Amino acid sequence: MSELPSSKDCYKIRQTCCEMLADRGYILKNDAFASFQELSVQPFFEFEQKYASQPTNWVLYGEHLTRVSKNTSDKTPESIYLQCIPDLKSQTLDDVLNQMREKLYDRIIIVSFTGLPKKPLQEKLDIQSNASKVIAEVFSHDRLIFNITKHFLVPKHTLLTETEKLQILKTYKVSEDQLPVIEKTDPVARYLGLDQRNVVMITRISENSGKYINFRICK
Q1: How many angstroms separate the CA atoms of 119 and 172, rounded?
Q2: Which of 22, 92, 106, 132 is most enclosed, with most CB atoms within 10 A?
Q3: Which residues form a coiled coil (predicted)?
Q4: Cβ distance 168 to 199 under 8 Å?
Q5: Final residue of a domain: which of 117, 143, 169?
Q6: Interval 100-144: pLDDT, tens
Q7: Domain count, the chain
Q8: Could you tell me if 139 and 154 lie in one domain?
Q9: Phi-psi bin for 41: left (phi > 0), alpha (psi -120 to 50), beta?
């Protein structure tokens, strides 16, 4: 196992994860803080006091503001769980697989400190995801030290609700197939957790032409 990042880097990673879940439309649950936004700006010294000996030993829970769970019969909000795995291998993945089997959450995000999973591990995740209908995402920790959406070259991407998407299609008199595509593997698409047929509004600001807006569909 490679050496873990510093407490400062782990703090930045948690900050990005909080921003990412907030941008996806989740609200923070089971925490002393009121929101992901509030947790994201927690002073570093407080984070270090709590996690100095184990800076990866934190988790995040959230519920979606508008989406409902596909794994319950009532209208329970879609749930998400995010955890760090310092050494991603078969044994350390078992806990995640058990959570998926028991359908404790609708979506699970793993922050891996040993890179993306090798093919056998990814296949195990995919098989369990298909069986349980629980979405599993894996991010390499070094991709989360900085929030890609804050880069000055990245325009603002906003995930539309299904109602907003239908309104856009109606307003512009187009079908889904006529929209430009954003690949599911695109870094911003991964940040937003885009699923197939999700539509994002992309807003670019130009000194010459002002605000320019277009829409892309995830495929």
Answers
A1: 42
A2: 106
A3: none
A4: yes
A5: 143
A6: 999 889 999 999 999 999 999 999 999 999 999 999 999 999 999
A7: 2
A8: no
A9: alpha
